[in-house]
């Protein structure tokens, strides 16, 4: 089984700050990590490879720094990695990003299964995976909490609030996983050392013959950011604690009447 996993390097959102004066996001001090949902997708791919054989390729769009997370994926079982790095890709929205990734997938060859994490923690849109499926014209299954391969078909438990539904799909297909699907394994010292020596294939826009450059980057993105701001902080509530519950109720009623709420 030939499996491709789309991964993203993201800033640790716990370390991101917003400048309230300029309303700009400052992620300069935040460490770069593998998107947690994508770690689940990589683990799912490696488990399928271990059970059915084949190869796992990880694909990411980013900068030279992104090689670190690609090597991290190799250290836990991926076989090879590809980085899409070009200034023309900068400021692409989810639609342009998914178009670039789909163009790269076509360039790389034929894959039975493409896995993505449910969403990236920096944007939380959850749009790239389904859009890749649409660009490629293949079946897609979202919110996958269990993936099995039986009789040349994909059998997936699709998670819902009250349970799950079982969906079957022919390959090739795109499957978007949730974080309850597994617990990603840790790399060993030996596997980390081997991954550090791995060669990362780097592709630019010129390497993707099917790519329409008018559909990428800031100019090719249909989504435009109008404003970035932090929501105003809500005022703290008022505690009413009189001697008795009856007295507290009377005081509350008087306050509501004075504010013309009742």
CATH superfamily of the largest domain: HUPs
Overall average residue pLDDT = 91
How many independent structural domains? 2
- Write the CATH architecture name of the largest domain: 3-Layer(aba) Sandwich
Question: What is the CATH C-level name of the largest domain?
Answer: Alpha Beta
Unreliable runs: none
**How helix-rich are the residues, as a percent range?**
25-40%
The share of residues in extended strands comes to: 25-35%
Give a description of the structure.
The chain has 262 residues and is an alpha/beta fold. It folds into two domains: 2-215, HUPs (Rossmann fold), CATH 3.40.50.620; 237-262, no CATH class. The chain contains six helices and 13 strands. It has helices spanning 36-52, 67-75, 94-108, 128-136, 189-196, 245-258; strands at residues 2-6, 9-11, 17-19, 24-26, 32-34, 55-61, 80-84, 113-117, 139-150, 153-160, 163-170, 173-177, 201-203. Strands 11-10-9-12-8-1-6-7-13 form a nine-stranded mixed sheet, sandwiched between helices. Strands 2-5 form a two-stranded antiparallel ribbon. A two-stranded antiparallel sheet has the order 3-4. Strand 10 (153-160) and strand 11 form a beta hairpin. Helix 2 packs across helix 5. The radius of gyration is 23 Å and the shape is globular.
Main attributes of the structure:
9-stranded mixed beta sheet; alpha/beta; single chain; 27% helix; 262 residues; Rossmann fold; 2 domains
